[in-house]
Amino acid sequence: MVQFETIEKERRDYGNFPGEKFVEVSRNKAIQDDGTENSFIQIATGYYKDEETAAYKKRFTVPTDEKAVDHIIEKLPEMFEKEKEAREQEE
User: Fold this and answer.
1) Is residue 90 part of a domain?
2) Which of 6, 8, 13, 67 is 20 to 30 A removed from 91 (C-alpha atoms)?
């Protein structure tokens, strides 16, 4: 059975109300039964059930491969700008 371990995580609240929703970026590793490890980066969104309990809604994992990470770093701002422009045109 695979065991998952969170190495580090950073969470940021967003939405109309503080503490309502969050986006989280974390470093994780999967440990196989034979002891081999596979590290990855995870981006997750979720919401708070109450003051202490977080519920995850969606997760996306990125391999810890420099080309993959560089591609996301390059394209994410471009896609966000296009989304903002599209919203402005709708108004």
Assistant:
1) no
2) 13
